[in-house]
Amino acid sequence: MKNVASVVISCVLLAASGSVLAGDAEAGKAKAASCAGCHGANGVSSNPMWPNLAGQQSGYLAKQMKAFRDGTRTDPMMSPMAKPLTDADIDNIAAYYSGL
Description:
Blueprint: H1 2-21, H2 25-31, H3 36-39, H4 58-70, H5 78-82, H6 87-98
Helix pairs in contact: 2-6, 4-6
């Protein structure tokens, strides 16, 4: 019985953590307007220097944007763009691009 309870608790925690990362794609679309200059209007870049964002996993996108924001990953263009973003902004932008 103890194993069943721990599995149920683990599933509930996993489900809850996924919903926290879900984000609001509509809010993300509005916030992502400044991203279009490099990453394309629909998240598909026309320049090979900048990656396509459309269809990427939201967790991956959020992790990378938070790394740019927090300084664990640096880039002269992305770091200043990510610096003012909140966790909610990042989750919303990630939800938008992952849904494209």
